[in-house]
Amino acid sequence: MDHALVAILVCPVCKGKLIYHKTAKELLCKADRLAYPIVDDIPIMLAEEARQISLEEYDKL
Fold first, then answer.
1. CATH no. for residue 12?
2. Which pick of 9, 25, 33, 48 has the fewest CB atoms within 10 Å?
3. Which domain holds residue 40?
4. For the residues of 21-37, what is the DSSP string, one character each?
5. What is the distance, to the nearest Å, from the Cα of residue 5 to the centroid of all Cα atoms in its chain?
6. Rounded CA gap, 7 and 48, in Å?
7. Closest alpha carbon to 42 in 11, 4, 5
8. pLDDT tens, residue order, the chain (61 aa)
């Protein structure tokens, strides 16, 4: 995933900053506790496709 692209992407729900999680291939939004998948180096920035981050995962961020 290109770091320049990650730097300009924002959460489509709250417009907040995203965190790139390399091993899980996801972009994480702490504010909304959502994880957006990255498929074939393309971030899927749809709220319907995001998964909810558990409290345990959130605490590790």
1. 2.20.25.10
2. 48
3. 3-60
4. ETTTTEEEETTTTEEEE
5. 12
6. 22
7. 5
8. 788 888 999 999 999 999 999 999 999 999 999 999 999 989 999 999 999 999 998 888 7
